[in-house]
Design goal:
Blueprint (H helix, E strand, L loop, with lengths): L3 H13 L2 H8 L3 H15 L4 E3 L4 E3 L1 H28 L7 E6 L2 H17 L4 E6 L7 H4 L5 E5 L7 E10 L1 E6 L20 E4 L6 H7 L12 E5 L2 H9 L5 E4 L2 H5 L4 E5 L6 E8 L5 H13 L4
Parallel strand pairs: 3-4, 3-5, 8-9
Antiparallel strand pairs: 1-2, 5-12, 6-12, 7-10, 7-11
C-alpha cells in the first residue's frame, strides 16, 4: 500500500522534476526526498525517474503512475479542503480564473479546462486573454488565479512556475522592407530599422528590454517607433511600413496576412512562456488545474 508521504513526494517530484524544489515544498531535506523515491522504486521494482547531473525526467512507468494517481489525489485534497472550509463556515473556491497572452497558450488552457471540468464536477474555469500592455495587472487586481505568459517575470508578489513553451523569435517586417528578402536577421540589425513597441507604463523595464531592446548588442541605439496598447495595433503599424516588431516565430501561423513577412532571428534569445500565480498562495483547486495543464503541456 502506498503511504501518504510516498504519494506526496512522488507527485511533487513528478511536477517539479527537481529534488531541491520538491524538498522545499515538503519542508524536508533533499536527501529525504531521494530516500523516499528510492524506497518507492524498490517496492515497485522499476525506476520511476531518470536522473543525471543536469535533469530529472519521468520514465514511461513513472508517467503512467502519475497519470493514474493524480486525479484521485486531487479529489482527496479538494474534498479535505472543502470539509475544512465548510466546518469553518468559509465558501469553497470552485472557479479557477485563467489568463493567457498568446493564442497557442490560450489553446493549451482551453484543452486543460475541458479535462479539468470532467475531472472536477461542480468546478468551472474562466479564461481570458491578457493584454501585452499590462501583463501583471489582472493578477494583481485579484481577477486571475493563474496565468500562462511571457517570461522573464521577477516580482516579489508573483511566483513563477515551469516553462511550457520555448519559442524561437522572428522579426515581423512589411513586405517592402529590405529585411523581407533576407533568410535571417540578427539582433544587431535592429539598429538599422524602427521598432514598433508596447506602451510600457505597466510593464517592468527588464521585460521591455528583453523583448523591445533600446540598444543592439554592440551598443547602437535601436530607433523606437509607436508604443501600442494592443497586438492588432502592432500588426497594422508593421503592415503599413511604420516599423518592425520582434515576435515569436509561431506567430506567423496565427497572424500571417498580406503585407507581412516573418524573418527568423539567428541569434535572439528564445521567448519563454511559463506559469505564474500570486505569491500570497495557491488554493488546492488552482493547483489541481495547474497539474492538469502540466499533464497535457508539450515536453519541457
Amino acid at each position: 500500500m502506498l503511504e501518504r508521504h510516498e504519494l506526496e513526494a512522488f507527485l511533487l517530484l513528478a511536477e517539479e522534476l527537481h529534488f531541491g524544489r520538491t524538498a522545499d515544498r515538503l519542508h524536508v531535506t533533499t536527501s529525504r526526498v531521494s530516500q523516499i523515491i528510492r524506497r518507492l522504486e524498490r517496492r515497485i521494482g522499476a525506476p520511476l525517474f531518470e536522473r543525471n547531473s543536469r535533469q530529472v525526467q519521468l520514465t514511461p512507468l513513472g508517467a503512467k503512475l502519475r497519470d493514474d494517481l493524480l486525479p484521485a489525489y486531487e479529489a482527496i485534497t479538494a474534498g479535505l479542503a472543502e470539509a475544512v472550509a465548510t466546518s469553518r463556515g468559509v465558501r469553497v473556491q470552485t472557479l479557477v480564473r485563467v489568463g493567457f497572452s498568446a493564442p497557442w497558450c490560450g489553446n493549451l488552457m482551453v484543452q486543460a479546462a475541458d479535462r479539468f471540468r470532467v475531472r472536477h464536477p461542480g468546478s468551472d474555469v474562466t479564461i481570458e486573454e491578457i493584454q501585452l500592455a499590462d501583463p501583471l495587472g489582472r493578477m494583481r487586481a485579484g481577477a486571475v488565479d493563474i496565468q500562462l505568459t511571457e517570461f522573464p517575470i521577477v516580482e516579489d508578489d508573483i511566483t513563477t512556475g515551469p516553462i511550457l513553451f520555448a519559442e524561437p523569435r522572428s522579426l515581423m517586417v512589411p513586405e517592402s522592407h529590405p529585411f523581407a528578402a533576407m533568410e535571417s536577421v540578427s539582433m544587431e540589425d535592429l539598429g538599422d530599422t524602427t521598432l514598433v513597441t508596447i506602451a510600457d507604463e505597466a510593464i517592468p523595464r527588464y521585460w521591455m528590454d528583453y523583448y523591445f531592446p533600446r540598444r543592439t548588442p554592440s551598443g547602437r541605439p535601436v530607433p523606437q517607433g509607436p508604443a501600442t496598447n494592443y497586438w492588432p495595433e502592432v500588426l497594422v503599424h508593421v503592415s503599413l511600413g511604420v516599423g518592425v516588431s520582434t515576435v515569436s516565430a509561431r506567430a506567423e501561423q496565427y497572424h500571417s496576412r498580406p503585407g507581412l513577412v516573418f524573418v527568423p532571428f539567428r541569434d535572439a534569445p528564445p521567448i519563454m512562456y511559463g506559469l505564474m500565480w500570486p505569491t500570497s498562495g495557491m488554493t488546492p483547486i488552482v493547483r489541481a488545474f495547474m497539474n492538469t495543464v502540466l499533464e497535457i503541456a508539450p515536453a519541457r
